[in-house]
Predict the 3D structure of the following.
Amino acid sequence: MSRGVPIKNPYRPGAANTPLFLAGRESQERILRAILRGAPEIPANYRITGLRGVGKTVLLKHFEEVTKGELNWAVARLQLEPRHNREDAIVGVLHDLLLDVQAQVSRAESLRQKTEAVITGARSVATMTFEDVTVSLGGSANSKESNLAADLLETVRIAVKSGRAGLVLMLDEAQVLVDDKDRDGQHPLSLLVAAINTLQEQQVPIALVLCGLPTLIANLLKARTYSERMFRGEEVGRLTRDQTREAFLRPLDGTGREASEDLVTAVMDDVEGYPYFVQLWGAELWDEAVDTSSNVLTADLLKGLRETIFKRLDHDFYSPRIDSLTPAEQDLLLLTGDCDYPPLRTADIHKVTSRKQGNVNVLMGRLADQGVVYRLQKGLYEYTAPKFHEYLIRRKSRTMWT
């Protein structure tokens, strides 16, 4: 190893940290390119779902880079939060986001200064002109849907005037948008889908990319019956063993360190193809190699690190999902570690708790709302984080010995 400036750890564990090498997501990028090529004649909407730790947010950030750069579309990207699950909230946050995008893509200073005034004016009419075509915003001129459609349309207009192909709206954690069952309740997801659909029906160059947990699929179907036809759906899952190998080894290129074959096999067995785990295992192994002045990462190195790695995994990845819950929710979730899995069956949960059936159902519903589990069908659930059941077993074992 050279004695110059130390090489930084080439692995990037952590929420939404972009790895030095993005492995196994070429097919998703090809789909993105294809749907944007077909726009606006073919509605360009992409739905990406998957568990925690599979790299959905990293993929969305990569999409933004490709779309802004090589494909020359304007991009508005936002990570949604539960507080956005109201009609006023989603319209408001997207209004602010779109104003920022307009300012970024506007080439003329005068155009930037006039952006807010133009948007305000657009909200007061039921139709707008785009590329010599009159676009109907539909509904009442004062409706939230019309307001959102006007914001989107004006952003597209400014983007195209600035030389962009159109606008791509990318929303992460989109599963937080859930329509109320009550007809008179809140319907933020329906509002969003309807506004996009209104513009796409009139061939405005706008695309929607939604990224989230598997519950997003059901939420969309409940929101609008036509949503199934609007979106190209893709599930992002585990990497193959070959992809996992590449994700682990490629960051070592040019560092002066390498990994033994027995270590690569052991890492692949441990991480089971989950990108977050690849980065965490790699980061810990790298730091240990630096501390021990080792040029080769070996299986023996991993053996001495496994307990440390799992403690960090539990502390950084799993524990926060429990710590934010109420005591009652925590108690029930911890008890699910005693149930057979997968999937979680409410019938099995009843066997390990003294709570009444109605209370269990309510708590499981709240855990689903918190994004800790998701419902497969009535009485059946799965965790949203991979290998979470194993974590619960480890946690219980540690508690017994302390």
The longest strand covers residues 206-212.
